[in-house]
Amino acid sequence: MVLIRRFKGRGQRSSLQRLLLLVLVGTVAGCSTSVLMPTSPPALSSSQHHDAVGTLLSEAHQAMVERRLGDAEGLLNRAMRINPTSPEVYYQIALLRQAQGRTTQVRQLAERALSLGPNAALTRDIKRLIGR
């Protein structure tokens, strides 16, 4: 939504056209890596949507989408300090490691997330990440 608001009132192109162009450019620019960034934030339990960890996870997801991987890492480290047993945190860190090309850590982090008993939607996402 922020991107759409940012483009309003500029030139002849509609906001949707500009957004699609931005997504296309970002996709083409990212073709040099094989990172599959999820299009939506990870499935959080209802209680986590309103707490600090949920906020940090949402901000970290947005940072990863924008390829601000250093920012995402800082946010995820803070989330880990707050709740070191959150499967969502481990899943997001696994996604970050994948985006950083640190593939040996992806499986370890994803397995740790699974061991912490995530909800069904997150379990599905984790298994998809590690190819199960």
What does this structure look like?
- By secondary structure, the chain is mainly α.
- Helices cover 64% and strands 0% of the residues.
- Helix 3 (52-65) runs antiparallel to helix 4 and helix 6 (103-115) runs antiparallel to helix 7 (120-129).
Brief summary of the model shown:
This protein is 64% helix and 0% strand. The chain is mostly helical and 132 residues long.
Q: Topology, please?
A:
Elements: H1 2-7, H2 15-29, H3 52-65, H4 69-82, H5 87-99, H6 103-115, H7 120-129
Helix pairs in contact: 3-4, 3-5, 4-5, 5-6, 6-7
Please tag this protein with its features.
132 residues; single chain; 7 helices
Order of helices and strands: HHHHHHH
Query: Would you report the number of β strands?
Result: 0
**Cα-atom radius of gyration:** 16 Å
Biggest beta sheet attributes: none
Strand content is: under 5%
* Count of individual helical segments: 7
What is the mean pLDDT?
77
Give the helix proportion (percent range). 55-70%
Distance between termini? Answer: 34 Å
Which structural class do you get from the secondary structure elements?
mainly alpha
Give unreliable regions as ranges.
1-13, 19-35
Shape field: globular
